[in-house]
């Protein structure tokens, strides 16, 4: 199945589900004629219509590389980003960022682990100092707390 | 006329305050950096800065964001010329002749004409903007909810038409943005829609999250497949100078590029990218010997660079006066204004004169700052590009995570950012433009509100949209813009090409 056809089917399902969910939203006053559900119906309906058009206009295309050859690296990056996001609060900004950046350097082609880790430590320190100390942005301190 | 001069003086009074001047310098510097860095463009850059500027007053915040916008364009053209890497889509046209000039050892004149062209274009743009925006705003004061709703439909249709080759995909992108906008508490009834019981979604999905996810995260996901260990080829950079002949050669290209860019910029949907390509194409068509283009013709740098700067100014007009952003960058800026409780629209001129006139004057000031700042710093910006990609992208992701976390302070926002990044990756791999989704998100709430108000006023009669003359004209234009590509294609299609087209 081509990417467009798959997209069209997924969008169609999402659009229908989106419109169906709007049935639960009731207006409170008679004056608000459209109420909270009419607009989602319109958006969902248009989206379903466009998905059908996309299905019609999509042409069968011979498959190229395999799924993993095309999307393998991005999926791995997305997975490591997910791990980073989930670990951000429990581990704290410093530890989780260091791990994510060091892993990223090594995985994207740096052979020397020492250089990956060294640069990651430096980058983490600079970003933390800049955003947490200079701009006083709220970053998760984690179980260790901030260095004094 | 005297009123314009008065406003101009007032605007410069705001823009030249020491604090605002400092914000402009910082913005211009950060913007240039963003323009040079791959993976972060003006949309992401501005979105990430929103949490940082939200505490300062709206006028200063907008001055800084505008400077970022401008700086990104300057930075983008610098890398286009020196390394053939357009930092932004709007400087792609600059690579055609700019990089060729650099290879011939004429990087200096190319950079200089880009800066001077941008400066002239910006100056013209700001002055025209002062002339145009107030009459437009006073006309728009007559608009009611019906007209505004129609206007937003027009904006979103032209965006769809101009965003890419495939109209269906562009419309789907707009609808996706409108859909995201419905998440959260409904302003009229207080009902929670599409929140799935998650308290963090009650306020809706944050613009910063969507912009960073769809633009930056998706970009990095796209790029990992192409990371190579090889180094880039750099053109040598000599002294930046420009001979009088170079300037005279490109004068008319600058003038035409400025005009094309400014008027393209006013059109909703036609951003700096389209403006720069139009100007390049026009210059090539008008040239006595078009074959010099693509081989290092200075006019091929002057025209697109003037056009993209002029269009950046032009795009501010519908955003400020009507509340209809013409491009994803202006959409994010409008989002920033709304977060600071400054609602763009005709009233902005009376309610927040310091924001409007200060912003206009500061565009001019930013131009001057960039002219002074960028040329000496070109060498430094080029050094940034020598950083290996494998060391660059993890840090870019971390900056995005910091920005989104700072804006929303929640894990939910980060997970949403990642999800939108994956969606954006899929969209971009399959030729769905992501820009229209941002416009949909920014306009969505207001579009629904105006639609509901319009029907309350008309007592549920939908024909109010076509019986009120201004709205009827606007909607007719919207329909025209959606159908135009098909009509043009049908007219151009000849029997022979028709047969080959479906093969």
Structural write-up:
The complex is a heterodimer of chains A (148) and B (503). Chain A is mainly alpha-helical and 148 residues long. Chain A has helices spanning 3-21, 35-57, 67-91, 93-107, 113-134. In chain A, helix 1 (3-21) runs antiparallel to helix 2 (35-57), helix 3 packs antiparallel against helix 4 (93-107) and helix 4 packs antiparallel against helix 5 (113-134). The radius of gyration of chain A is 24 Å and the shape is flat. Chain B is an all-alpha fold and 503 residues long. Chain B has one domain (2-502). Helix content of chain B is 75%, strand content 1%. Chain B is built from 21 helices and two strands. Chain B has a two-stranded antiparallel ribbon with strand order 1-2. In chain B, a hairpin with a 6-residue loop joins strand 1 (184-185) and strand 2 (192-193). The relative contact order of chain B is 0.18. Classes of the chains: A mainly alpha (148), B mainly alpha (503). Chains A and B meet through helix 1, helix 2, helix 3, helix 4 and helix 5 of A and helix 8, helix 9, helix 16, helix 17 and helix 18 of B.
């Amino acid at each position: 199945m081509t990417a467009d056809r798959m997209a069209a089917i997924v969008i169609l399902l999402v659009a229908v589900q989106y419109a169906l969910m709007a049935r639960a939203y009731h207006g409170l006053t008679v004056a608000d004629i459209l109420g909270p559900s009419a607009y989602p119906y319109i958006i969902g309906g248009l989206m379903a219509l466009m998905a059908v058009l996309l299905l019609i206009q999509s042409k069968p295309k011979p498959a190229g590389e395999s799924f993993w050859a095309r999307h393998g690296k991005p999926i791995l990056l997305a997975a490591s980003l997910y791990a980073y996001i989930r670990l951000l609060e429990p581990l704290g900004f410093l530890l989780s960022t260091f791990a994510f950046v060091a892993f990223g350097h090594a995985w994207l082609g740096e052979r020397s682990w020492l250089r990956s880790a060294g640069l990651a430590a430096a980058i983490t320190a600079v970003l933390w100092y800049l955003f947490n100390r200079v701009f006083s942005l709220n970053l998760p301190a984690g179980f260790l707390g901030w260095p004094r | 006329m005297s009123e314009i001069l008065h406003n101009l003086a007032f605007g410069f009074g705001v823009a030249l305050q020491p604090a605002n001047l400092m914000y402009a310098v910082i913005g211009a510097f950060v913007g240039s950096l963003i323009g040079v860095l791959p993976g972060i463009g003006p949309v992401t850059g501005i979105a990430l800065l929103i949490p940082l500027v939200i505490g300062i007053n709206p006028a200063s915040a907008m001055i800084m964001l505008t400077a970022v916008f401008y700086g990104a364009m300057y930075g983008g053209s610098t890398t286009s010329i020196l390394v053939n890497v357009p930092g932004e889509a709007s400087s792609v046209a600059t690579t055609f002749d700019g990089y060729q000039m650099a290879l011939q050892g004429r990087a200096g004149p190319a950079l200089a004409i880009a800066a001077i062209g941008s400066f002239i274009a910006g100056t013209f743009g700001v002055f025209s903007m002062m002339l145009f925006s107030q009459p437009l705003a006073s006309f728009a004061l007559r608009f009611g909810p019906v007209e505004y709703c129609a206007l937003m439909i027009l904006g979103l249709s032209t965006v769809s038409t101009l965003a890419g080759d495939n109209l269906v995909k562009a419309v789907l992108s707009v609808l996706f943005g409108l859909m995201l906008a419905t998440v959260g508490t409904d302003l009229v009834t207080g009902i929670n829609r599409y929140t799935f019981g998650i308290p963090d979604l009650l306020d809706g999905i944050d613009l910063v999250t969507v912009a960073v996810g769809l633009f930056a995260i998706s970009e990095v996901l796209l790029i990992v497949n192409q990371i190579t260990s090889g180094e880039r080829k750099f053109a040598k950079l000599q002294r930046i100078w420009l001979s009088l002949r170079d300037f005279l050669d490109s004068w008319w290209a600058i003038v035409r590029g400025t005009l094309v860019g400014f008027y393209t910029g006013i059109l909703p949907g036609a951003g700096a990218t389209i403006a720069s390509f139009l100007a390049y194409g026009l210059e090539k068509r008008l040239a006595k010997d078009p074959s010099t283009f693509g081989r290092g013709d200075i006019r091929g740098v002057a025209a697109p660079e003037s056009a993209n700067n002029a269009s950046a100014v032009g795009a501010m007009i519908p955003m400020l006066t009507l509340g209809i952003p013409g491009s994803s960058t202006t959409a994010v800026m409008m989002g920033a204004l709304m977060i600071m409780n400054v609602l763009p629209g005709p009233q902005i001129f009376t309610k927040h004169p310091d924001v409007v006139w200060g912003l206009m004057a500061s565009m001019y000031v930013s131009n001057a700052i960039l002219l002074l700042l960028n040329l000496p710093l070109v060498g430094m910006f080029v050094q940034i590009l020598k950083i290996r990609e494998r060391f660059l992208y993890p840090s870019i992701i971390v900056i995005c995570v910091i920005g989104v976390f700072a804006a929303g302070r929640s894990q939910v926002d980060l997970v949403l950012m990642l999800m939108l990044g994956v969606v954006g990756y899929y969209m971009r791999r399959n030729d769905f433009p992501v820009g229209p989704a941002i416009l949909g998100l920014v306009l969505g709430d207001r579009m629904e509100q105006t639609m509901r108000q319009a029907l309350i006023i008309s007592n549920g009669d939908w024909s109010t949209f076509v019986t009120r003359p201004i709205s009827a004209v606007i909607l007719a234009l919207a329909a025209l813009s959606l159908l135009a590509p098909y009509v043009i294609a049908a007219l151009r299609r000849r029997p022979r090409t028709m047969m080959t087209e479906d093969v």
